[in-house]
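RECORD TYPE: inverse folding
INPUT: structure tokens
STRUCTURE:
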């Protein structure tokens, strides 16, 4: 069946997916959702999507994206998403944005769409035929209705289109710009400047996951100014970014982090809230446009880590505290500081307290066993022998020097 036939409005002004959802046909909705060309964002005569028509949370699970790790978390680290900012890049980016802004009122949308189809569809031979049919359907709909929202809907679909688009943008922004590249980036002109998208402009805080190596982390030094080369899919719900980040596991040895983006200005529409446009509304997606400056002012630990890494981090910090604190007062102060820092970074109180308690108990047992072994060794070594006296001094800060002098005087008068 064709894409048009599957997504057409029935006699009751409702799509097949909307009808199945409103009547609670779970198996039918699941079957339709798995079909790669069913458009979830189509609305019925009451302006409701199939997702909106059901209030049952369990039923809504059927409308969720099964695998979006590549969309909401960067698996390529610094290479694809970012480039270091300098005067040359700023000038080129400013010129590029200005040129797109100048062109947006002089050419009809059909011109843009034909260019986009040529560069991002016809020339890239998407292997999945059903994906190709669906993407062409969206392009044609955008051209016929002069509606740029259709281009955003294409981007939110789980096809290879959005990956190829971002890869191409990343390569072009790295290698430089020319007239051919500007034509190939016509989609940026529409999504950033088209007047009908102004209502979706976003200002606020949004989140995205990232998998990085130790080398990648060096690129995010405090105060470094960066610019994103491609579109960034983020979510207003931190839990969405964390869930997809956790789903990647840690077998490749990379670190998992959460990037927090604070969009403060609406200049040139830096980001758009596409929750109501997206094919997957539950993700609460905010799309950040390319060529947006970022200042990485700080890096901090984050709760978006596998459980064993969280426990390992807390354990190492507690062991360090036990080593440097000479008395319980100093230890209590150090542990209080650690609790505050971990809480501020999203670690649960229950996990913190349990790990601290377990670590201290384990270290105490280790010390006791070590002391027993030392005493046993001492007894074995001192049978019939004269042994030197070993005195271990704790960390006593300023008092250490004066204490040492007094101790030396005392030792002169001790006879063993």
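DESIGNED SEQUENCE:
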């Amino acid at each position: 069946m064709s894409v048009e036939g599957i997504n057409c409005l029935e006699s009751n002004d409702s799509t097949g997916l909307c009808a199945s959802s409103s009547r609670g046909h779970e198996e039918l909705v699941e079957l339709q959702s798995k079909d790669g060309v069913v458009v979830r964002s189509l609305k019925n005569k009451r302006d409701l999507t199939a997702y909106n028509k059901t209030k049952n949370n369990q039923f809504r699970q059927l409308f969720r994206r099964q695998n979006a790790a590549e969309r909401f978390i960067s698996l390529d680290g610094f290479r694809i998403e970012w480039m270091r900012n300098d005067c040359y890049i700023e000038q080129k980016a400013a010129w590029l944005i200005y040129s797109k802004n100048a062109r947006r009122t002089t050419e009809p949308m059909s011109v843009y769409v034909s260019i986009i189809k040529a560069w991002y569809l016809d020339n890239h031979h998407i292997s999945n035929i059903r994906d190709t049919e669906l993407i062409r359907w969206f392009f044609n709909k955008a051209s016929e209705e002069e509606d740029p929202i259709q281009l955003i809907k294409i981007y939110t679909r789980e096809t290879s289109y959005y990956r190829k688009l971002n890869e191409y943008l990343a390569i072009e922004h790295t290698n430089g710009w020319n007239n051919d590249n500007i034509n190939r980036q016509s989609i940026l002109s529409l999504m950033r400047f088209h007047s009908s998208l102004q209502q979706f402009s976003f200002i606020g805080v949004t989140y995205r996951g990232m998998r990085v190596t130790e080398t990648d982390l060096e690129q995010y030094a405090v105060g470094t100014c960066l610019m994103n080369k491609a579109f960034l899919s983020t979510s207003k719900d931190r839990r969405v970014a964390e869930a997809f980040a956790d789903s990647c596991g840690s077998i490749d040895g990379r670190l998992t982090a959460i990037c927090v983006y604070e969009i403060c200005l609406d200049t040139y529409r830096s980001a758009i809230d596409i929750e109501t446009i997206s094919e997957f509304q539950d993700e609460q997606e905010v799309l950040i446009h390319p060529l947006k400056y970022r200042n990485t002012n700080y890096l901090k630990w984050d709760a978006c880590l596998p459980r064993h890494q969280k426990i390992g981090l807390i354990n190492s910090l507690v062991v360090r505290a036990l080593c440097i604190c000479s008395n319980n007062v100093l230890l209590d102060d150090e542990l209080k500081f650690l609790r505050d820092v971990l809480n501020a970074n999203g670690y649960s109180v229950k996990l913190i307290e349990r790990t601290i308690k377990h670590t201290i108990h384990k270290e105490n047992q280790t010390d006791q066993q070590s002391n027993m072994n030392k005493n046993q060794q001492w007894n074995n070594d001192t049978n019939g022998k004269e042994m030197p006296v070993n005195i271990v001094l704790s960390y006593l800060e300023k008092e250490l020097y004066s204490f040492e002098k007094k101790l030396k005087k005392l030792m002169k008068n001790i006879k063993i």
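NOTES: The chain has three domains: 3-63, 82-288, 298-367.
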